[in-house]
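Hi support team,

I submitted a single chain yesterday and got back a structure, but I'm not sure I'm reading the token output correctly. Could someone confirm the output below corresponds to the sequence I sent? I've pasted both exactly as they appear in my results page.

Thanks,
R.
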Amino acid sequence: MILQSIKKTLKIIKNNKTKLFLIFFLQVILFTSLSIISYKTIIPAMDNAKMAVEYYDSINMTETSGTFGYLGEDPLSVYNSYNKMMYYLKYLALFAILSILLISSIIWPLSSSLIENKSKHQIIDYLFKFIIINLISLLLIYVLIFQKLKASIITMEISMLPFISSLFALLIILYFTFIALSIISKKTPKDILKTTFRLGILKANYILLIYLINIITIALFSMLVYLTIELNILLLAITVIFWVFSFVFARLFLIVSIDELDKKLKN
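Hi R., thanks for writing in. Yes, this is the structure output for that exact sequence:
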């Protein structure tokens, strides 16, 4: 089944070069926007974190320092640095999510239309279901990361179990989200949840293999980009193109494979 899906994916790519180029171009826009957002937020956030660490390192602590001595001369600077760091990280999350939602809401329908042409009504219906699924998933992830995972990090010294369980729950959410996104073109909102869990549980061995193939594919091209950074600029440009294309291929392969699994599940 996996080999059949790979062959079908490659055939679709071969027969739809124009649409594929458009998807590739949108993927470049997505990565570019995420790079700009990261540059504008992560660097200042890390600068503020560095300032807080340097402040603590500069405190001259002795046995006679007392409680307030351990806080140094300007403890508010640490608090201000923390607030600024969280400010930038929150904006990172906000703009990254908006960028992913807006651009992906075009990329996913286009990728799905390579398998089966869609009318305007079907595209609108697809977009509605796509946004709803993503909002639900993002809400669950937000609660998990900023509540459960935050609490887990605080208690990490006592036990790693809460931290690991939070990450496991995050992976479960992502596991079912990508299944749902791959079947929405042919399902009603009522059937999406049912089919997602049926496929995710009954065909878990195939789906995990599909995910593994996609992860290995993207990882290999990521490694190639890393290895060619200091080499010839032309070679680097070629590897970056293939790296971007690996995401295009992985998404299409996922949609094709899940569609094939859904057909087998019905039979």
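A quick pointer for reading it: Residues 17-59+73-113 form one domain. Let us know if anything else looks off.

Best,
Support desk
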